[in-house]
C-alpha cells in the first residue's frame, strides 16, 4: 500500500513539473489571451450619451421610456473551467511512453494550472458509462494537484465509454456558462445530441487521446485480443493482409464520422497521441482560437 501511494505521488509530482513548465513558458499566456476577457455579463440599462455605440441601444426599453437607452455590460473576471475526463477501461491502454489515462492527466494539469494562474475556478468530472465523480470548482495549487491525483487513481465502477452521461450532467447542473474540456478516446457512439446541446450551453472543447497501436494491426500471426471495456476475447489472424486492411478502413471511417460529429456542432477538437509531444497541438489550438476571436 505504501509503495502504491509513493508511486502515485511520484506520478503526480512528475506531471506537476512537466505541466507547470509548459504553462510558464507559453501555454499559460495563450490561455489567457484566448479565454480571458471574452465573457461579458449584463449589468443594467442607462440613458444613451453622445459617443456611445448605436449598436448598444436597446430598442424595446427605448420604446417604453421614450428616450434612447443602452445596455451596460461588465467583463467576467472569473471563469469556471470543467475538466470532463474519460476513465473507462480503454483509457488504461497505452505503450511504453504513457497510457491514455496518464496523457489525460497531463492535459488536465496543463489546463488546470493555466486556469489557476488566471484566477479561474477548476472543476473535475470523471466518467465512464456513468458519472463516476464530480469535484466542485475551486482554486489553488493544492486543488489542481488533487485534480491530477483523482484522474490517475480513479477506480471506475463502469468499464464502457458514454460521454452523453457527463454532458447531460453538465448541461443540467451548471447554472453559468463554463469552459468544458472534454477528454476521451470517444470509443463509442450515440452521444451526438448530448454533445450539441452542451455546446450551446457551454464553451466545449474536445480532446481526443489515442495510442499509435490503435491505428493498425501488427503482423504477428494469430493473436488473442481483449476488449478493455467489455472483456470480450477474440482470436484474429493478423498475418492476413485483408484482415489488417479491413481494420484500417473501419478505423478510418469511424474517425471520419467522429470528426464530422464535432464539426457539425461547431466544437473545437484537439488530437493527441500517447507517443507524441502534445505542446505543438496545444499551440495550434490556441492559434486557431485566437484567429477566430
List keywords for this structure.
single chain; 293 residues; Rossmann fold; 2 domains; 6-stranded mixed beta sheet; two-stranded antiparallel sheet
Number of domains: 2
Spatially, the strands of the biggest sheet line up as 5-4-3-6-7-10
Helix proportion of residues, in percent?
40-55%
- What radius of gyration results from the CA coordinates? 22 Å
> What's the oligomerization state?
single chain
CATH C-level class of the largest domain is Alpha Beta
Order of helix and strand elements from N to C terminus: HEHEEHEEHHEHEEEHEH
- The CATH architecture name of the largest domain reads 3-Layer(aba) Sandwich
The total of helices stands at 8
Outline:
This protein is α/β, with parallel strands linked by helices.
Structure, explained:
The chain is α/β, with parallel strands linked by helices and 293 residues long. It folds into two domains: 2-36 and 77-292, 3-Layer(aba) Sandwich (Rossmann fold), CATH 3.40.50.410; 40-75, no CATH class. Helix content is 45%, strand content 23%. It has eight helices and ten strands. The protein has a six-stranded mixed sheet, sandwiched between helices. The protein has a two-stranded antiparallel ribbon with strand order 1-2. A two-stranded antiparallel ribbon has the order 8-9. Helix 1 crosses helix 3 (100-117). The mean pLDDT is 87.
Amino acid at each position: 500500500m505504501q509503495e502504491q501511494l509513493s508511486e502515485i505521488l511520484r506520478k503526480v509530482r512528475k506531471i506537476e513539473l512537466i505541466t507547470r513548465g509548459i504553462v510558464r513558458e507559453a501555454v499559460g499566456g495563450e490561455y489567457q489571451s484566448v479565454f480571458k476577457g471574452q465573457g461579458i455579463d449584463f449589468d443594467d440599462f442607462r440613458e444613451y450619451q453622445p459617443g456611445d455605440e448605436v449598436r448598444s441601444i436597446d430598442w424595446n426599453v427605448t420604446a417604453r421610456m421614450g428616450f434612447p437607452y443602452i445596455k451596460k455590460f461588465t467583463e467576467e473576471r472569473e471563469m469556471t473551467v470543467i475538466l470532463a475526463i474519460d476513465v473507462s477501461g480503454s483509457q488504461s491502454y497505452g505503450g511504453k511512453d504513457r497510457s491514455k489515462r496518464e496523457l489525460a492527466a497531463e492535459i488536465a494539469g496543463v489546463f488546470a494550472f493555466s486556469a489557476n494562474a488566471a484566477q479561474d475556478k477548476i472543476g473535475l468530472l470523471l466518467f465512464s458509462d456513468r458519472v463516476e465523480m464530480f469535484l466542485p470548482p475551486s482554486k489553488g495549487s493544492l486543488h489542481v494537484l488533487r485534480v491530477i491525483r483523482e484522474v490517475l487513481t480513479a477506480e471506475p465502477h463502469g468499464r464502457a465509454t458514454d460521454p452523453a452521461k457527463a454532458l447531460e450532467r453538465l448541461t443540467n447542473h451548471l447554472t453559468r456558462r463554463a469552459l468544458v474540456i472534454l477528454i476521451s478516446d470517444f470509443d463509442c457512439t450515440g452521444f451526438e445530441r448530448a454533445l450539441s446541446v452542451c455546446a450551446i450551453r457551454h464553451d466545449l472543447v474536445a480532446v481526443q487521446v489515442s495510442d499509435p497501436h490503435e491505428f493498425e494491426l501488427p503482423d504477428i500471426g494469430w493473436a488473442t485480443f481483449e476488449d478493455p471495456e467489455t472483456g470480450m476475447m477474440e482470436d484474429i489472424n493478423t498475418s492476413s493482409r485483408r484482415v489488417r486492411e479491413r481494420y484500417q478502413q473501419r478505423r478510418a471511417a469511424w474517425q471520419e464520422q467522429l470528426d464530422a460529429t464535432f464539426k457539425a456542432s461547431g466544437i473545437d477538437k484537439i488530437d493527441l497521441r500517447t507517443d507524441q509531444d502534445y505542446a505543438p497541438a496545444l499551440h495550434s489550438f490556441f492559434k486557431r482560437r485566437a484567429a477566430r476571436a
